[in-house]
Amino acid sequence: MISLHTLSLLEFDKLLRIIAGFANSGATEAAVAKLAPFSDKLEISRRQRETGDILRLSSQGVSLGLSQFSDIGGLFSKARPEGSVLEGVELAGFTPVLELISDIAENLGLREDIPSLRQLAEGLTGFPDILKVLKKSIDSQGAILDTASSTLAGIRAEIRRLESRIRKKLEDMTRSADVSVFLQDDFVTTRSGRWVIPVRMDSKGQVAGVVHDVSKSGETAFVEPIAIIGLSNELENLTAEEKAEEIRILRSISARIREQLVEIEEQFKLLVYIDMLNCIARLAVLLRMEIPEINESALINLDNGRHPLLSLSFQKHGTGRHVVPLSVRLGRDDTVMVITGSNAGGKTISIKTIGLLALMALTGMPVPADSSSSFPLISDLLIDIGDEQSIENDLSTFSAHIAHISEILKKADRKALVLLDELGTGTDPVEGAALACAVLNEIKERGALLFATTHLMDIKGFVHRTAGMLNASMEFDQNTLSPLFRLRVGEPGQSHAIEIARRYGLPDRVVDSAKALLGGVRAEFDNLIRDLTEKRSYYENATGEIERQKSELEEKRKVLDELTATAKRERDAVMANAYRESSELAGTVKRELYELLEAAKKAEKEKIRVSLKIADTRKQEIDKSLAAQMPEEAGSLSIESITKGDLVYVRSIDVDAQVVDVDRRHERIRVKYGSIEVEIPFAGIQKKKGKGVGSGKQTGERPQAVSESAEISINIIGLRVDDALSRIEPFLNHAALAGLREVAIIHGIGAGILMRTVRDHLQGHPLVAGFRSGEQREGGRGVTVVTLK
């Protein structure tokens, strides 16, 4: 169990607050705040698949359609007791929730490319009956609508009629000469639910009626004239009836919700869960995060990892800076890595990045790293980072570190990941190094994975001599005396404290004195490391140059291959034209000879026949010669010679394909290329040319056919089912041959018969990878969008 203290030190809680910022509800924010690492690999994989489905939709430009919704979680306990009544404003919160649930169920239920999300959506219904009653009865502000019941509509109509009578009567009185002289003003208003007119205080006795209020100045009395008291009493009775009917309506709706309260609560939790997954996916898109592998081999393989909080900080401030990616591998033969290097060089942020990304991976989240990254399924993450000295507990910096390390040693095992920062500091360097080496060895013997940082030279030497341990360093630019924030595995680093001190303004005499005090042996050791680092950089640059030249040669080879292929195609075209012209010439000669024979039937018949035979023989020789030079272009086929299983060349897609069926009556052929089957006219094929797998177009790739004539949509509204399907089949064939990825079938909504028939036909179709309802901008449920293989 990973402790809350560890989550806080690695700022996992801060990351969750950022994720919660994408939430559509307070309930989702609370759910995000409770996210924690799993201990079960199956749970991790399930969340990865669900998040991956949302990312797949996002890459296609498809949104889940989530929007803001109320946190109705607290209303379930209120609605549960028998006879309880929810207020109108409380019931209004159910409407957007049920609408969202219904929309998600419809949008996800039809897609086949998101199996995990589709499985979640199988439990969603949206309770259409309750939703219909809510939308009919309660507006978004919680007010009860006239359409809630015919009784309520009748009462309110009568109230409006009666109020109109009262208002008209009062307005007539204010315009009357007998009354208007006693009024403070000529408006009509209400006080305490009763209609009144403003009378001067000194004249209130001149207008017969009941005083219901007095103005703050004391100069105006609001009087209900006796003439309307009967009407007002009648209005008050109607208002009471209206209130009673409203309570009845609220009680009825509350009862309907209570009947399915358990199911509504479950679907609400599912909506919150999907919204939480969407929050994670939105952060993943923002930071270009990928789903890593979870292994049970105690292996960390991090490829181009980036600290998410640091990346967000750079994005927020728009400085143009970017996070230097971290790549590291630890496990199996080597289980301990000690990172050294300059101050502010990135040692601590490196181990924090490893720790935070491990937590994200174990929570089932994508991580800001390459998809080739892999994290171990650990049971505990043990860390000692930062200065946690305590005056109250009488702990110095060193004793606080030792106290934490003592607890870590008790818990470290083969299922633990350990992070130790500034190991061996806070005390005498020699004793601190000795303790640090003993700690490293103890954790190695326990089998835990360990990343540690330090500045102590003795630890570097111990790690170099000990099997199963690796030195690593943060790179440093010797010329600018600035860190490069790149991790280099296999060699220790230098602290560069003296150079950095000079750079930050320490007087030269102090720096020079420090160098003299450092000692010759230590200086030689640092110079040796520096020389090795420079040589390594030289060889890396040389290797990079070789790779660059290799890449250029490969590009040139590709260009040469393309030029060769182009020349061959041009040569073939020339030979084909020559063959056609020769064939035409031979035919012309033969016709002329026949004409000559007809014209000279009576003269030298035998001689002319012999000449004609010689001409035929010569033509056959020409044909054979040209066919030998151009077998690919000159080869012809007869439909009688074609059988199932034959390979033929299809001109429209420039590739060999296998014959699936032969329709000799209509002279049409059905062929299969990869997973695609299409029907084409017999005139569109030739003898096979060997253009298939291995000749530039791999099985499964979509042929790059010309698509100018391919339609991206077809309108079948108003057609009968048979007519519609007969038009859809050639439409899909043509679109597949044209290389289109997505097309639309416009069938309208109506009774839904045509839509269901079309989708049944698309189900399992050899050309169709999947289909969905159109989005609102595409035509909604009246359109089916088809994704082709």
| Mean of all residue-level pLDDT scores | 83
Task: Briefly note the structural class of the backbone.
Answer: alpha/beta
Structural Rg: 42 Å
Kindly estimate the percentage of residues that lie in beta strands according to DSSP.
15-25%
Order of strands across the main sheet: 10-11-12-8-13-14
pLDDT under 50 segments (min length 5)?
Answer: 389-394, 630-635, 693-708
* Largest pleated sheet: 6 strands, mixed
Distance between the termini: 46 Å
Give a count of the beta strands, DSSP E runs of length 2 or more. Answer: 23
What is the helix fraction of residues, given as a range? Answer: 40-55%
Descriptive overview:
The chain has about 800 residues and is of the alpha/beta class. Helix content is about 50%, strand content about 15%. A six-stranded mixed beta sheet has the order 10-11-12-8-13-14, with helices on both faces. Helix 7 (about 95-110) crosses helix 8 (about 115-120). It starts with a helix and ends with a strand. The model is unreliable at about 390-395, about 630-635 and about 695-710 (pLDDT under 50).
